[in-house]
Amino acid sequence: MTFTWSKQLSVGNRAIDSEHKNLHNIINGIVSSIVSRDIAALPEAFELLEKCLCAYFAVEENIAQAINFDFTQHRRAHQNLLNEFRLIKNGITTKGGIWSKHEEKDYIDSLSYCLIRHIRNDGRPFKAVLDTHFYDFKPDCADGNNILHGCA
Ligand SMILES: [Fe+2]
Q: What is the pLDDT, as a whole number, of residue 5?
């Protein structure tokens, strides 16, 4: 059971949407490994998720700075999101591949819900400001700063 990206999840910026889609895909990969009980694949998949989350945080922060959006609260939300994923990862990895169908559903729902909640709820104030800019808006990278190219 994987979940699909929909236009309703757009935050009004192409670079950020692209990061969100990439995170969705990584989560879907983790979900597939959970369903198939491929526990050997999970550490690497969670490592990739964390790496891409950090890259995504940097992309958003860079854009927020360029549009003068106060990122204090959203930065805190990012830390919470990272902690939630770490908790889920720890819960799964300590099980050693032995979990009930009910637990499996909980893991999958939690993984999916974390990101969707972050985009829809935590991201609402940021989206409101992003909506006043072009969809393709990105900070001036003339100084060679490559931070916009996160993990996607
Ligand atoms: Fe965010």
A: 77
**57 alpha carbon to ligand 1 midpoint, in Å?**
6
CA of residue 134 to ligand 1 center, whole Å: 18
Distance CA 21, CA 116 (A): 11
Six-digit token pair at 128? 């409101």
* pLDDT > 90: percent of the chain: 80
Q: Flag whether pLDDT at 30 surpasses 80.
A: yes
Domains present along the chain, CATH in parentheses: 13-130 (1.20.120)
Can you give the three-state secondary structure of 117-136, one letter per residue?
HHHHHHCHHHHHHHCCCCCC
Strands in the chain per DSSP E: none
